[in-house]
């Protein structure tokens, strides 16, 4: 038995000869830390490259976050974002399409690197590219969109931007724009890690966008508050300057200086009521109208222009002034052609029109702030001009704004007594003026008051007398009409006014107060007529 086992062992040993000691693979006594020669891996080399790229991208995300988060305004933010993506990804071009308004429905190309930015690169909310980027929360291949048969305009923009990859700039549910990446500089394809990196940067950019937007809003608000403070200080200084004026010429010079320095007014005319005729506003001073032509530039107290501006302070710009029949009767075609504009700034003190400034040209267009300053200057200077006119006794009307009406009532009383006839004084007043101006603005109220003035004039005869006696207040003397006849006229006026009740809006209807007194049935005293008007 043993002999058989020994013979089998010899045969097996003959098949595997013993190797020399130096050729042994690993002697039992030798130890090692690691084997750097054998290949124990099972993954391809591309996986190691991708993993290394991913680590680099994550490291870059931290740096990019710090860089774009330090942006102080949108211009710096978009520039930092484009440079950061371009440097890390290695693409040939980057275009940032967004807006500086959080709720904008339009994305414009605001920064481009690697391609020349074009003004027409923009997408509206109705465009397919806009909608697809708004709806998605990941990156997209531009080629996939182009295969969907985009409108020619959108396809052209993507082509001009050399778009390969599109990524949304979003934060939570909001999308604030998109990032367009061109081909890689090494002409390779984008790998998953590149797309993941761009997606993360787009999400971070969305968060930073909101922060920059809030910062810009605060900066704008601070700038506005600073501007308001400067305006208030300027108005106070103007008020102090006017308070020290004692002559009309000095007041005019000071007004002229303020118009030029603070509003950039180049050419203007200053009109006041004619002290002799008491029926027209005439030129007191102008750097536009020639002296020999100054006497021809006058506006009647009953003119449509005066009626429009006499109710409330504001800036009244006549858009089609060259076609205005009243102005065409005053100025020559050459004079109208030279004027750049016809903007009126009324000087209203209490309830009556002191005068007006007509602006013919400015060095720059007016902003809302400019208009606020203009109104402030007029409101500050109006009482000064009124007081100076009173002191110089140039116009009795400024001492008593009801003087023309009072004179007419006295005249009507004399005629009524001698001819044994009646007459009626009617008072129309628009109610809730403060609420109307608050809801619709001073300009719209002024146009409505002027419309009411025209409506009243259409219903009275040439023998009747009409005048404005305050803000939204009109008085009518109906010659030779007793109470019943006056009621007929008032019904016609009310009916005409009723047709214009939707002037402001379908849901808002202005209210009126109408008072009347008839001579001799109600009173024979002139003072009672005047008290009715003053107390309305």
From TrEMBL:
Region (Disordered): 1-30
Keywords: ATP-binding, Nucleotide-binding
Signal peptide (from-to): none
A single MF term (Gene Ontology): ATP binding
Name of the featured protein: GAF domain-containing protein
SUPFAM superfamilies reported for this sequence: GAF domain-like (SSF55781), Nucleotide cyclase (SSF55073)
Lineage per the UniProt record: Bacteria, Pseudomonadati, Spirochaetota, Spirochaetia, Leptospirales
The organism of origin for this protein: Leptospira ryugenii
Chain ranges of the GGDEF domain: 421-536
Keyword hit for Transferase: no
Binding, ATP: 499
Keyword check for Glycoprotein: no
């Amino acid at each position: 038995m043993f002999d058989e086992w020994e013979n089998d062992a010899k045969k097996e040993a003959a098949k595997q000869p013993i190797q020399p000691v130096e050729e042994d693979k690993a002697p039992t006594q030798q130890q090692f830390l690691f084997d750097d020669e054998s290949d124990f891996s099972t993954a391809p080399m591309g996986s190691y490259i991708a993993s290394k790229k991913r680590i680099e991208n994550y490291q870059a995300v931290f740096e990019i976050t710090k860089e774009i988060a330090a942006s102080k305004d949108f211009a710096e933010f978009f520039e930092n974002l484009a440079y950061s993506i371009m440097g890390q990804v290695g693409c040939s071009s980057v275009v940032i399409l967004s807006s500086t308004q959080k709720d904008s429905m339009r994305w414009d190309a605001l920064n481009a690197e690697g391609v020349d930015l074009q003004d027409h690169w923009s997408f509206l909310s109705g465009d397919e590219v806009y909608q697809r980027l708004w709806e998605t929360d990941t990156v997209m291949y531009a080629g996939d969109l182009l295969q969907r048969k985009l409108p020619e305009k959108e396809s052209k923009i993507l082509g001009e931007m050399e778009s390969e990859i599109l990524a949304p700039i979003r934060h939570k549910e909001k999308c604030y724009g998109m990032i367009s990446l061109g081909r890689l500089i090494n002409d390779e394809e984008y790998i998953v890690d590149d797309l993941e990196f761009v997606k993360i940067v787009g999400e971070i950019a969305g968060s930073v966008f909101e922060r920059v937007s809030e910062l810009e809003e605060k900066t704008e608000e601070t700038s506005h508050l600073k501007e308001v403070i400067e305006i208030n200080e300027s108005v106070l200084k103007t008020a102090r300057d006017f308070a020290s004026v004692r002559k009309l010429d000095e007041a005019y010079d000071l007004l002229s200086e303020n118009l030029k320095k603070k509003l950039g007014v180049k050419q203007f005319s200053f009109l006041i009521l004619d002290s002799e005729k008491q029926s027209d506003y005439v030129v007191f001073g102008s750097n536009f109208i020639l002296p020999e032509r100054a006497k021809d530039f006058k506006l009647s107290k009953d003119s449509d222009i005066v009626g429009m501006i006499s109710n409330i302070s504001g800036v009244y710009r006549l858009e089609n002034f060259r076609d205005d029949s009243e102005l065409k009767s005053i100025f020559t075609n050459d004079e109208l052609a030279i004027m750049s504009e016809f903007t009126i700034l009324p000087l209203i003190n209490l309830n009556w029109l002191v005068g007006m400034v007509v602006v013919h040209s400015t060095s720059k267009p007016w902003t809302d702030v400019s208009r606020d300053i203009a109104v402030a200057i007029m409101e500050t200077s109006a009482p000064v001009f009124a007081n100076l006119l009173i002191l110089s006794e140039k116009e009795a009307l400024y001492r008593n704004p009801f003087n023309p009406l009072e004179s007419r009532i006295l005249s009507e009383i004399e005629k009524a007594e001698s001819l044994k006839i009646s007459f009626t004084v009617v008072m129309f007043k628009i109610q809730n003026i403060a609420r109307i101006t608050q809801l619709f603005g001073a300009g719209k109220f002024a146009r409505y008051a002027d419309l009411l003035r025209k409506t009243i004039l259409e219903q009275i005869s040439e023998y009747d007398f009409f005048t404005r006696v305050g803000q939204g207040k009109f008085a009518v003397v109906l010659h030779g009409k007793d109470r019943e006849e006056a009621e007929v006229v008032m019904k016609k006026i009310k009916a005409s006014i009723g047709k214009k009740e939707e002037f402001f809006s379908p849901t808002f209807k202005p209210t009126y107060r109408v008072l009347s007194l008839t001579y001799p049935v109600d009173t024979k005293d002139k003072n009672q007529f005047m008290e009715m008007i003053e107390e309305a």
